[in-house]
Amino acid sequence: MRDYPYMTARVSAKKKKLLDQGDYENLLKMQPNEIARRLGEGAYQDDIDELGSKYEGARLVELALTRNLSRTLSDLVDMSPETLQRIITVYLRRYDILSLKRLLRWKKSGEKGDIHDLLTPVGSYTYGDLKELSEKTTEEIINDIEFTDSEIDYSEYLEGKKEISGLETALDQAYFDELGLLADSTRNSDLKEFIQTEMEHQNIKIALRLKKYGISSEEVSKRMLKIDNGKVVEKIVEARDFEEGIERVKDSGLLPERASDDLEDIEHEMQVKRLSEALSTFHREPLGITPIIGYVIAKITEVRNLRMLIRAKETGIQNNDTIRRNLVMEHR
Questions:
Q1: Which of 209, 216, 268, 302 is the most exposed place for a label (fewest CB within 10 A)?
Q2: SS3 state at 117
Q3: Sign of CA dihedral 293, 296, 298, 300
Q4: Torsion angles phi and psi, residue 281, rounded to 5
Q5: What is the pLDDT of residues 277-320, one digit of tens each?
Q6: CA pair distance 248, 233, nearest whole angstrom
Q7: What is the pTM of this model?
Q8: How far is residue 245's CA from residue 214's CA, in Å, rounded to a whole number?
Q9: Which range has the worst mean pLDDT, 48-52, 116-120, 137-141, 170-174?
Q10: Residue 47 — pLDDT band, cuts 50, 70, 90?
Q11: Cβ distance 256 to 275 under 8 Å?
């Protein structure tokens, strides 16, 4: 019988296979092909081996990471009790939304570039599903977007939307509404706080991006996701300009000391801080939902770390100190 003690034991074994600080330090000394070889000796072996005859270096690692994440989390869903299956499935819906938004943008661009590079088949949509959608018109794609296991009717949010920005906002709104229902249903304070913080950070990013382009406070309010925002979001919206918005984020404690003024850096720093705090929080309860969700977040974070590291190594733009600052790790 699948229950939480069984799941916790399985997840504990999986968690021990995650990379630690020493592993990352070793990878920092390597070049892309060496990183691929090292990952192929551990938990990513099957994925590296399957793809190694066609790809190499950074491309091989990125494809193997996506495949491994999809397979690992799919297995986790399959072995979970029914209540936990729903939680993980809804949380992973973000990858479906990400792929759908990229697919719609790809259509708008005149189908420039390889669609394979844009898709992240980790949620409900398989690569085959997404490839099939890519062969349809934009209108057909919109009409086909459906999640039968969701309490949210995504088609209602998309109805009447024609512009890509409006479609993207509608998909995000539907997803975060679904995430909000999930948070309320679990009655788990740690998970609820994590989801609420994630939703608030999404609006902080939206507000700062719009402020950067000189959009008025009134227009910024209209374009943000309709969620329960904290005071930080309100202060950014009310800021006179982008620079004042940045200062209000810094004053909020959401960023580390000496944070950059660059928007992309700020978004990274906020994510690093939020995920680091979440990884420290989700191991406090020995049984139940939180250690299992903690593993899901830790696995997603590891893939994020490795993707960021391999891209930095391939481009050579970031030095090792910069890469270290962008790594998210749980201190064990």
A1: 216
A2: helix
A3: negative
A4: -80, -40
A5: 888 877 666 666 788 888 999 999 999 999 999 999 998 888 89
A6: 9
A7: 0.86
A8: 11
A9: 116-120
A10: very high
A11: no
DSSP state of 120: -
3-state secondary structure of 149: coil
Take residue 319 and report the two structure tokens written for it. Answer: 């030095």
125 pLDDT exceeds 50? Answer: yes
Q: CA 20 from chain center: how many Å?
A: 20
Count the alpha carbons within 13 Å of 11 in the hemisphere toward its beta carbon: 29
- Tell me the C-alpha distance between 79 and 10, whole Å: 9
CB of 96 closer than 8 Å to CB of 147 = yes
CA 147, CA 130: separation in Å to the nearest integer?
Answer: 14
Closest-CA residue to 107 (of 125, 134, 132): 134
Does 1 have pLDDT greater than 50?
Answer: no
Among the listed residues 282, 320, 286, 321, the one whose alpha carbon sits nearest the alpha carbon of residue 301:
282
Place of tokens 């977007």: 145
Whole-number Å distance between alpha carbons of 136 and 32: 36
Q: Please report where in the chains the tokens 């069984």 appear, as a residue.
A: 6
Nearest-angstrom CA–CA distance, 241 and 212: 7
- What are the CA-CA distances from residue 198 to residues 14, 82, 91, 170 (Å)? 25, 25, 11, 17
Q: Which stretches of the chain are DSSP H helices?
A: 4-15, 21-28, 32-39, 45-51, 57-79, 82-108, 127-134, 138-144, 154-158, 164-186, 189-212, 217-223, 231-238, 242-252, 263-281, 289-315, 320-326
**What angle (nearest 5°) sits at the alpha carbon of residue 75, between those of residues 69 and 78?**
140
